[in-house]
Design brief:
Radius of gyration: 19 Å
Number of strands: 14
Bound molecules: NADP nicotinamide-adenine-dinucleotide phosphate
Order of helices and strands: EEEHEHEEEHEHEHEHHEEEHHEHH
CATH class: Alpha Beta
Mean pLDDT: 97
CATH architecture: Alpha-Beta Barrel
Largest sheet: 8 strands, parallel, barrel
Distance between the termini: 35 Å
Structural class: alpha/beta
Oligomer: single chain
Shape: globular
Helix content: 25-40%
Length: 311
């Protein structure tokens, strides 16, 4: 499986992150701890030991079940897992106050049954953010050993710069929605200085910013048109893209989803892809597909098949 370097980590980390939003969280059929345990073993067998959580997934249930799944099984050692979680989304508002971050971190640690998080992210930009307070919270979490690395999610360059002016720690991760279909971050650059829809700047050139500052981008919803519109895989609205995904999947001995993932991992920003499947076979295939390295022609072919233009 492909691995990448992340600033501040002593060892390289898996390019495929196991997203934990759905299995025991936001789903109509939540996993039991036993099922989650089996799922974790499958990920670990394939070398994927980096797990992404958030306190809001299933309103705490995702973390709770994960914690139980680990606690029931002495063969899963905490030091072999990289556990990332996020805080700051509350029901009906966002909260990045010191008090909330500290309380949320304790809640996350309690549910996961661990005394430290490898990474804590602020889940969404908070319009009322007071960076001095975030700095105090991060300092306290860092000094107490409760959190080893910090990052953000869904942030623009200036939001990151504003925070970093006050923080004593580096922000090492920015998690953003990205797929071959949801690729505005790429299109904006390719269509620079044009009046085409793709040229619109929706994120302040966050991709270039992260590359410049050594912040690892993590792509969430890699197979979705958007969270509300569902997947583009096998979706009749994307015939050209699906034909190209299937053709390349056959050439490379993987699945169309594996090729959609490889499209993200081929980008030289050295991003991680957070996959959200609850299906163990799909998970295995996706972890294995991280070794697929697309040619430029294949990468641009997928890009245009997804509906983006080359000026
Ligand atoms: N920071 C943020 O704001 C944010 C927001 C959303 C998510 N996230 C993180 O990103 C992770 C991934 O998000 P996501 O779950 O939306 O990503 P995803 O991997 O694009 O979507 C997974 C969903 O697609 C379905 N799917 C259908 N066909 C598939 C196929 N052939 N291969 C793989 N999946 C297929 C899966 O169903 P099956 O389970 O049946 O395979 C599952 O319901 C989450 O778990 C979470 O950790 C972060």
């Amino acid at each position: 499986m492909k691995k990448i370097g992340i600033r501040g980590f002593e060892t390289e980390q898996p390019a495929v992150v196991v997203g934990c939003m759905r299995q025991a969280g936001f789903t109509d059929h939540p996993f039991s701890a036993q099922e989650m345990n089996h799922f974790i073993h499958t990920a670990l067998e394939e070398g994927a030991n980096y797990f992404d959580h958030a306190d809001i997934y299933g309103i705490g249930r995702a973390e709770q079940v994960f914690g139980e799944a680990v606690a029931m099984d002495p063969s899963i050692r905490r030091e072999d897992l990289v556990i990332q979680s996020k805080c700051g989304i509350c029901r009906g508002y966002y909260d990045s106050s010191k008090e909330h971050i500290l309380e949320a971190a304790d809640g996350i640690l309690g549910r996961l049954g661990t005394d430290y998080l490898d990474v804590l992210l602020l889940h969404r930009p908070d319009a009322l953010i007071e960076p001095e307070e975030v700095a105090e919270a991060f300092d306290a979490l860092s000094v107490s050993g409760k959190v080893r690395h910090f990052g953000v999610s869904n942030c623009t360059p200036l939001q990151i710069s504003l925070l970093e002016k006050y923080l004593g720690q580096e922000l090492v991760i920015n998690q953003m929605e990205m797929s071959v279909v949801h690729a505005g971050m790429v299109a904006q650059g390719v269509e620079a200085n044009m009046t085409t829809p793709g040229s619109a700047d929706h994120d302040g050139e966050i991709l270039n910013y992260c590359r410049l500052h050594g912040i690892t981008m993590q792509c969430w919803s890699p197979f979705q048109i958007s969270l509300k519109d569902g997947t583009f895989l096998g979706n009749a609205a994307y015939p050209e893209l699906n034909a190209e995904l299937s053709r390349l999947a056959e050439n490379y001995g993987t699945t169309p989803a594996g090729i959609a993932e490889a499209w993200l991992l081929r980008h030289p920003a050295n991003m991680q892809v957070i996959v959200g499947t609850s299906n163990e076979e799909r998970l295995r295939e996706l972890i294995r597909a991280s070794d697929v390295y697309l040619t430029r022609q294949e990468w641009y072919g997928l890009y245009t098949a997804a509906g983006h233009i080359l000026p």
